[in-house]
Amino acid sequence: xxxxxxxxxxxxxxxxxxxxxxxxxxxxxxxxxxxxxxxxxxxxxxxxxxxxxxxxxxxxxxxxxxxxxxxxxxxxxxxxxxxxxxxxxxxxxxxxxxxxxxxxxxxxxxxxxxxxxxxxxxxxxxxxxxxxxxxxxxxxxxxxxxxxxxxxxxxxxxxxxxxxxxxxxxxxxxxxxxxxxxxxxxxxxxxxxxxxxxxxxxxxxxxxxxxxxxxxxxxxxxxxxxxxxxxxxxxxxxxxxxxxxxxxxxxxxxxxxxxxxxxxxxxxxxxxxxxxxxxxxxxxxxxxxxxxxxxxxxxxxxxxxxxxxxxxxxxxxxxxxxxxxxxxxxxxxxxxxxxxxxxxxxxxxxxxxxxxxxxxxxxxxxxxxxxxxxxxxxxxxxxxxxxxxxxxxxxxxxxxxxxxxxxxxxxxxxxxxxxxxxxxxxxxxxxxxxxxxxxxxxxxxxxxxxxxxxxxxxxxxxxxxxxxxxxxxxxxxxxxxxxxxxxxxxxxxxxxx
Length: 497
Ligand SMILES: [Zn+2]
Fold this sequence. Notes:
- The protein is of the alpha/beta class and 497 residues long.
- The chain has two domains: 3-274, Rossmann fold (3-Layer(aba) Sandwich), CATH 3.40.50; 281-466, no CATH class.
- 29% of the residues lie in helices and 22% in strands.
- The strands form four sheets. Strands 12-13-16-17-11-18-10-19 form an eight-stranded mixed sheet.
- Strand 5 (134-138), helix 6 and strand 6 form a beta-alpha-beta unit.
- Helix 3 packs across helix 7, helix 4 packs parallel to helix 5 (116-128) and helix 8 packs antiparallel against helix 9 (253-269).
- The longest helix has 18 residues, at 77-94.
- It is globular, with a radius of gyration of 22 Å.
- 55% of the residues are buried.
- Zinc ion binds next to loops.
């Protein structure tokens, strides 16, 4: 029976935010050994998929560390070294091993280390040597590099956004390792980098839908294992940021390169479609009101203040527009404001409060709102995710439903994007019976809301996840790069391996 060490070190680093500390990881996901098995069993996550495949294939998984937290700024050296130390200790204690399976992200940046995933893999290689098979799952927002490909045996990025195939990629990584260990394949991975920064782009819409179809066609070619478009993470201001295509072949490096380059050419031809322009909140709300006269609910997502991409989640641009419009039978969630949530919990259900809501992190995301609110209900912020990451226990800390005119606002004590109707349901709100629902997320909410929304309207006021890259001052991304530089040119990367 093969023995495979498994672990997760995952962070999407928005370098425009303040630092991500060890405490933030420890306060989010920081699990060791068997605790990992219990926490992720039967969840639609990378680790959940790895566990299922291991059970099915008769592989013994030895869990090491699972560490992740909400996207935020550059990881402190202390946090990076603590995570890496736990992983390496876990691997040393698990020896002898046949392979290693890691859930990494691809867009982690630590102080002084722009390509954290390669640094982690290099450190693991120092312990286990060059011959040990290592399979790695990646988030498609990872900024993949040829160095990652050289250090790993295979890279498996999700294809979908929302990332509804995390579980399948976890299964795929373990299945891949078993084939390597049986000597059936001697794989080769190619990473083709494009001079392109892509803002959040749903996989269900063009151009990603057609490009993913092309990737899937390559995956069914004889001798191919995987081919994925990685969107990259434009809010990591590092030289490696950008779109890549990652291809894994069973034996032939030339085939992997050919697949990656063929998809990359198509991406480049359609680069203009990766530039997104969305209405500001007042216009988005007006559009939603008009649409709601026909069918409801209409969902407005504030993409620029997405805590799932590193934004603070306490921005008020969309909420202010919804209040100004005097909406009725409508809801907004979640606004991250621990102080107001605590004040509501202190005051109790039925109280009327004067609050200064949101806008604590900065003014870019909107000014605080002075409101008189009614405390309609209170909760602990805990529920089980039902769409993306199904089965995972979410914890938004103390939450409150505050009513202001015809609008119900859910306030949370922990940062997090809205992924499904859970935050509203927790407070007795059935979003299907709302006229207009405002929420903070870029794309992941679609897994939970597309099945029920009459219409989805994206709004993009200023914010740390804005789709308008003109809001950001880039210092480290390689130039020229599209769309910052309209004259950027893509030449196939002959050095990729
Ligand atoms: Zn992602």
